[in-house]
Amino acid sequence: MANPKILEQKQQIIDEIKENVENSNSVVLFDYRGLTDAEIKELRCKLRENDSRYKVYKNTLIERALHDLNINLDEYLNGPTAVAFSKDQIAPIKVISNFAKDHDIVTLKVGLVDNEITTSETLQKLASLPSRDGLLTMLASGMIGIPKDLAICLDLYAKKLEENN
After folding, report:
1. Average pLDDT, stretch 11-21?
2. How far apart are CA 44 and CA 84, in angstroms?
3. Predicted confidence band at 1 (pLDDT cuts at 50, 70, 90)?
4. Average model confidence (pLDDT) for the chain?
5. At what angle do helices 4-22 and 59-68 cross, to 10 degrees?
6. How far does Cα 69 stand from its chain's mean position?
7. What is the pTM of this model?
8. 57-65 — which CB contacts under 8 Å span 24+ positions?
């Protein structure tokens, strides 16, 4: 029989994982095997800059927590697995994907974006999207273009009317 204190500690970790998954809009599981301590610290800092957290748990504890939440990711829980949590749907995906470009060791396994299971291929597509600020800038520039064009047209029309008079 397992020690009750150890079982209690494991249950606390399972509860922590469940709480993190429930309170996050984006959960990314990735393989970090082979990174040095300095590289892990660099990744952790980049994630923190984007309001994301990164933690390594035992796969069995992740599996139990996800089963309690009716999420089945068992096929992705092999080998060392790190988990990134964030309220932003795209931020941790972009950070890990960009980090993986410089460190071939890092691979995205699977994610939960807005509580939907997202494959590594879809995660790569999401990573290529512009940031929220970039999208807002694109929207604003598109919206500014319409009144600008209207102002140019009205100015040309006014000049044409002046020439005719």
Report:
1. 91
2. 9
3. low
4. 88
5. 60
6. 20
7. 0.75
8. 57/13, 57/17, 57/81, 57/83, 58/13, 61/10, 61/13, 61/14, 61/17, 62/17, 62/29, 64/14, 65/14, 65/15, 65/17, 65/18, 65/21
pLDDT, mean of residues 61-66 = 92
Q: Which two tokens stand for residue 90?
A: 């795209």
Question: Rounded distance, CA 61 to CA 38, Å?
Answer: 26
